[in-house]
Design a protein that fits this description.
Elements lengths: L1 E5 L8 H14 L4 E5 L5 H7 L8 E3 L3 H4 L11 E5 L5 H10 L2 E6 L3 H20 L5 E6 L8 H9 L16 H7 L10 H20 L12
Parallel strand pairs: 1-4, 1-5, 2-3, 2-4, 5-6
Helix pairs in contact: 1-8, 4-5
Organism: Qipengyuania atrilutea
Protein name: AAA family ATPase
InterPro entries: CobQ/CobB/MinD/ParA_Nub-bd_dom (IPR002586), DNA_Partitioning_ATPase (IPR050678), McdA (IPR048089), P-loop_NTPase (IPR027417)
């Protein structure tokens, strides 16, 4: 089992959008995937409840002690994708401890970049006592095509010493449209959105493989 947490203490960074779409990308590759909603606001739960045909199981673990129970699910799933809470340090700290990989969504805004500072410190402190685990990377979200903001954000994030994924998630109407229906961009008919989520999944799986988790490109164990 591999635990991927999507974390950023700042609200509105796109955590739930990334969680649901990444989980579906892994599911479509044949992986057994569980979504965990750790945010008491329950955005992922609302998304899940919006479609009776949702193929992905979801559990709500919105207390730090509950998140620790993820270890009991080893063997039941290939991937667990956790939607992180905003501003709740105890839940974020618990998620970091159980994670194999942390995806940090950041909008092209100085406020979002600054807000990531404490999270990076938490992750690096954990890595120091666990021989570099969990791995972590930034992903730029709500990028506006035709602007240089993405490049500026990459330059700023480089100072944190964590990799920035090559894939950026562009601001597209298909993301909120499909979310409101409990779906993902894979059902939304937007090829560009489909391709960028697939590219994101490829990068995450590649980094997990490099870290020794042995995840093949189709989502199966290597």
């Amino acid at each position: 089992m591999v635990v991927i947490s999507v974390l950023n203490p700042k609200g509105g960074s796109g955590k739930t959008t990334l969680t649901t779409n990444l989980a579906q990308a892994l599911h479509l590759r044949g992986s057994k995937v569980l979504i965990v909603d750790s945010d008491p606001q329950g955005s992922a739960r609302d998304w899940h409840a919006a479609s009776a045909a949702n193929p992905l199981p979801l559990v709500s673990l919105d207390r730090a002690n509950n998140i620790k129970t993820l270890s009991s699910m080893i063997g039941s799933y290939d991937h667990i994708v956790l939607d992180g809470a905003a501003k709740l340090e105890d839940i974020i700290a618990a998620a970091i401890k159980v994670s194999d990989f942390i995806l940090i969504p950041v909008q092209p805004s100085p406020y979002d970049i600054w807000a990531a500072s404490d999270l990076v410190d938490f992750i690096k402190a954990r890595q120091e006592v666990t021989d570099g685990s969990p791995k972590a990377a930034f992903v730029i979200t709500r990028h506006i095509e035709g602007t240089r903001l993405g490049d500026d954000v990459r330059d700023a994030l480089d100072e944190y010493g964590l990799p920035v994924l090559s894939t950026a998630i562009t601001q597209r109407q298909v993301y909120p449209q499909t979310a409101s229906e409990g779906r993902t961009v894979f059902e939304g008919g937007n090829t560009k959105a489909h391709d960028e989520i697939d590219a994101l999944a490829n990068e995450v799986i590649g980094m997990l493989a490099d870290a020794g988790h042995g995840e093949a490109k189709d989502g199966t164990h290597g």
